[in-house]
UniProtKB/TrEMBL annotation:
Gene3D superfamilies recorded: PurM-like C-terminal domain, PurM-like, N-terminal domain
Protein family membership: Belongs to the thiamine-monophosphate kinase family.
Note, other: Reaction mechanism of ThiL seems to utilize a direct, inline transfer of the gamma-phosphate of ATP to TMP rather than a phosphorylated enzyme intermediate.
Positions with a binding annotation for substrate: H50, E261, Y320
Pathway: Cofactor biosynthesis; thiamine diphosphate biosynthesis; thiamine diphosphate from thiamine phosphate: step 1/1
UniProt protein name: Thiamine-monophosphate kinase
Entry binding sites for Mg(2+) 3: D27, D72, D211
Any one GO biological process: thiamine biosynthetic process
Reactions listed under catalytic activity: thiamine phosphate + ATP = thiamine diphosphate + ADP
Organism listed in the record: Gracilibacillus kekensis
Ligand binding (ATP): Y102, G119, D120, R145, S213
Lineage: Bacteria, Bacillati, Bacillota, Bacilli, Bacillales
Binding of Mg(2+) 2, residues: D43, D72
The protein's Enzyme Commission number: 2.7.4.16
Amino acid sequence: MEEFDFIKSIQPKYYQQSTTIKGIGDDAAILRHTNEDIITTVDTMVENVHFSTKTTEPFHIGYRALAANISDIAAMGGKPTSYLVSIVIPTSWSQESLQQIYNGMQQLARRYRMDLIGGDTVSGKQLSLSITVIGTIRRNKVRYRSSALEDDIVFVTGQLGDSACGLHILLNKDEPICDKYQYFIDRHRMPEPRVNFINECTAIDRISLNDVSDGIANELIEIAEASRKTIVIDYDKVPSHPLLEDFSEEMQFDWKISGGEDFELLGTVSSHNWEQLKISADKTGTAITKIGFVKEDTYKKGIVWMQHNGQRKRLEKSGYTHLRR
Ligand SMILES: Nc1ncnc2c1ncn2[C@@H]1O[C@H](COP(=O)(O)OP(=O)(O)O)[C@@H](O)[C@H]1O
Ligand SMILES: Cc1ncc(C[n+]2csc(CCOP(=O)(O)OP(=O)(O)O)c2C)c(N)n1
Ligand SMILES: [Mg+2]
Ligand SMILES: [Mg+2]
Ligand SMILES: [Mg+2]
């Protein structure tokens, strides 16, 4: 199958968003938004960096790549509406496997009524998937990393460390996989961006927010630095699945603090809004946990402290960093 037939095979038969004026089929797509601000974000997933074909089926490569991008829309407080896919395809990939990548994306896109409005197809040595997601946000409801204030509560949704644990199990397949650990594998393969939860919180004026792609150490430092505040968290409060305790303390620590790819939301909110935030979490079936608080910081350096085993230690940047030599 050649490039043009491939594009035809993935072209949507109809569009779900009334804002899509022109989707696939011309030099560029046209969208019409009048009342809302637009959010755009792009993230790339590359074979052997973000996934390995040894551990990830094509369906899940597509699903995870779109989920990671939708998660960034959620981390700004918005709703995803459309996406563009730029794909680099090695000639060894079959038409069926490519279709599975798109099926994975479609499963998630359908849930949010998102339109595939364009992209690019080229051949190359390694599979690479670059997805641009467009979303909308009501004015004044954007959730910046920089809006944490003194005495805010630090919260996180869901549970942390699941994805890194799932990846560990998949990468060490020679060890027999216990059925009870399937939960971790599923969380790695099919993360759920927290769109519904954050869109239920619109009554709250101010939330500072980040999504957990790199691990909470990095994400907390990003909030602290952008807001020029100090953050203090309690390790024992960081939520995790009970079965994570089957693994060593070191592994649990590493996965919860630096693992990343859980695509949970991490943020801060005024204590006056905590009850309201919990109601939104309940309404959307989202677990939410208070893990710390925000302090004023005379030096405004954005330091994060973690209480652990009776000591308070400074959290350093950790987790996955590209371009490290
Ligand atoms: N190559 C690049 N060119 C321009 N902007 C970039 C590039 N890489 C990252 N950015 C921008 O830097 C910021 C941080 O990116 P990143 O750490 O990837 O965020 P996230 O973890 O939310 O995906 C974002 O505003 C992103 O758009
Ligand atoms: C085969 C494989 N090895 C390692 C990882 C772990 N991993 C790869 S990238 C990454 C961090 C997130 O990716 P990044 O490109 O930094 O996303 P962004 O922060 O831009 O959202 C992690 C934890 C993985 N998912 N698959
Ligand atoms: Mg990114
Ligand atoms: Mg992000
Ligand atoms: Mg990153």
